[in-house]
Design a protein that fits this description.
The protein is α/β, with parallel strands linked by helices. Strand 6 (117-118), helix 6 (121-129) and strand 7 (134-137) form a beta-alpha-beta unit. Helices cover 44% and strands 15% of the residues. Bound molecules: 3-phosphoglyceric acid (3PG). Pathway: Carbohydrate acid metabolism; 2-dehydro-3-deoxy-D-gluconate degradation; D-glyceraldehyde 3-phosphate and pyruvate from 2-dehydro-3-deoxy-D-gluconate: step 2/2.
């Protein structure tokens, strides 16, 4: 079992390598592989599969088996039952939208590293006290966005973030310029109209375009 130091290091490596973490909601089971293949073709090979639909768990299980070269995380993990389910499905990391003591403690005792959501100094202190050093800032834009991250960098110099929620091609570069941002997350490359039309090429193009912002 990894200690918190090792989990923080693993999250840093997963996120900084990913650069962009797509937040994925699977509408139909048949979309799992083509949607994730389209993201991978566009350069996004680290995925956050949310439990927002009934296909989330199936997707994690299938991707681990059928796409072993992708890094598959679970998102929208809200309670202990969901945490256990994604661990069993083979998730390689876990993302939560917010933090409770119960979930943070479960994350410490889990074999899978957890990136907890935080939107305030109090959330960060709760996680910090338990050894967490990497967080998802959620919902990033409405929680102060770039200005909040700059302000957090003073008291929380050791912490690094994956801002998610309202991140788009328009503000991506502002986030990436911050030293305490390790990657950004979002769903803009999975426009619902492309998904319903199964227009996978547009998904791939949107990923490539966004990655180009990294220079
Ligand atoms: C999330 O839970 O991380 C968000 O749904 C992603 O945010 P976005 O849809 O605004 O990109």
């Amino acid at each position: 079992m990894m200690n918190m130091h090792e989990k923080n290091a693993l999250l840093e490596s997963i996120c900084s390598k990913a650069r962009i973490l797509p937040v994925i909601t699977i509408p139909r089971e048949e979309d799992i592989l083509p949607m994730c293949d389209a993201l991978a073709a566009g350069g996004l090979r680290t995925l956050e599969i949310t439990l927002r639909t009934e296909h989330g768990l199936t997707a994690i299980r299938r991707l681990r088996k059928e796409r072993p070269d992708l890094c598959v995380g679970a998102g929208t993990v809200l309670d202990l039952k969901m945490l256990k389910a994604v661990e069993e499905a083979g998730a390689q990391f876990v993302v939560t939208p917010g933090c409770t003591t119960e979930m943070l403690q479960a994350g410490m005792n889990s074999a899978v590293p957890m990136l907890p959501g935080a939107s305030s100094a109090s959330d960060l202190m709760l996680g910090y006290g338990l050894g967490y050093r990497r967080f998802k800032l959620f919902p990033a834009e409405v929680s102060g966005g770039v200005a909040a991250l700059k302000a957090f960098s003073a008291p929380f110099g050791e912490l690094r973030f994956c801002p998610t929620g309202g991140v788009s091609p328009d503000n991506l570069k502002n986030y990436l310029a911050l030293p305490n941002v390790m990657c950004v997350g979002g769903s803009w490359m999975l426009d619902p109209k492309w998904i319903s039309a199964q227009d996978w090429e547009s998904v791939t193009q949107a990923c490539r375009k966004a990655l180009a912002a990294f220079g």
